[in-house]
Amino acid sequence: MSDDTVIHVESLSKTYDSGFQALSDVDLEIRRGEIFALLGPNGAGKTTLISVICGLVNASRGRVLVDGHDNVRDFRRARERIGLVPQELTSEAFSTVWDTVSFSRGLFGKPKDPRHIETVLRSLSLWDKRRNRLITLSGGMKRRVLIAKALAHEPEILFLDEPTAGVDVELRRDMWEVVRGLRDSGVTIILTTHYIEEAEEMADRIGVIRGGSLVLVEEKRELMRKLGRKELTLHLREPITRVPATLDGHRLTLADDGHALVYTYDGRHNGEDDQAGIAELLADLDAAGIRFKDLHTRQSSLEEIFVSLVRETT
Ligand SMILES: Nc1ncnc2c1ncn2[C@@H]1O[C@H](COP(=O)(O)OP(=O)(O)OP(=O)(O)O)[C@@H](O)[C@H]1O
Question: Of 200, 223, 246, which residue constitutes the final position of a domain?
Fold first, then answer.
């Protein structure tokens, strides 16, 4: 475990009383100060994993250390380091913003600290609303209150469970800004999401969970670089039966019953090399007497990468 590990998850499994195994043998290290996005389809085990880390659900096997504290044997020390933002506001509709957020701090046995509550409310643009009852707030403001509640006891780690589920595009962007601001203030962020775009936009690292197993953990940039390939498809005038040996140096595959050639290349980092590669390819095609009538390029998005990963592990 390295020094910058803030959460250490080891051989974690969870079988519910029903006999359903929701997590199997999950190992994960969360680094201090990162935004980590946990992606996965419905029922993959995202909420279960968060709940076990936060100590709300018991693991069947394995252990979790939060800043070095075992989340079962040393529950309080582990839990006080964590803020959890659930999807929905459950109660307190008639309380004011100020009371709701202050009360949350008290739940962790922390002494009152109006200055801190003020800082949190200001950072989330809730200060002007502090005397408003929750029931009078817009959906966006309610989401901010959920975050303020989770930050009231000064946690260093913040879990956001589907922070933008069911919200409109504008509010989603607004939430992304808020989350980035928190990360910039030094909070480690772990979020679950269905929205690939959300992970692509915000995460430093991405974990993909499927059927209770963590199938991949990778730097987002690295993931995009390794898997985010560009494809150039050349639609040929005349079909060919095989790629001529003179074109062996290029990454070419035959498609569409010999009517198309597909060239794959790394589209993100070596822009100049790519262009050189394409120029060479076109010259070699010409020399080989292969003519094409049309071409198009496409870039794989994180969405496609994700879909292919999920498919591969089925
Ligand atoms: N208390 C429980 N008892 C039995 N099975 C449960 C319980 N809670 C969750 N499950 C099952 O465990 C699996 C994982 O659920 P979980 O809520 O962790 O998934 P998720 O990835 O968060 O899904 P979603 O994106 O739909 O919220 C699901 O099949 C769910 O039905």
Answer: 223
To the question of pTM greater than 0.80 for the whole model, the response is: no
Specify the number of domains making up the chain.
2
Q: Which of 223, 246, 264 is the last residue of a domain?
A: 223
Closest CA to ligand 1's atom 31: 43
Question: Counting beta carbons within 10 angstroms of the beta carbon of residue 57, is it exposed (0 to 12), middle (13 to 18) or buried (19 or more)?
Answer: middle
Which of 18, 20, 57 is the best mutation target for the ligand 1 pocket, counting ligand atoms within 8 Å of the beta carbon and taking the most? 20
Higher pLDDT, 173 or 207: 207
Q: At residue 297, what is the residue type?
A: T
How far does the centroid of ligand 1 lie from the alpha carbon of residue 47, in Å?
7
Task: DSSP letter for 87, please.
Answer: S
C-alpha to C-alpha distance for 293 and 208, rounded to whole angstroms: 40
For residue 254, the enclosing domain spans: 228-312
CA distance 25 to 108: 31
Query: What ipTM is given for this predicted complex?
Result: 0.96
pLDDT digits 0-9 by tens, 230-268: 788 999 999 999 999 888 888 898 999 999 999 887 654
The helix, strand and coil proportions of the chain, stated in percent and rounded to the nearest 5, come to 40, 30, 35
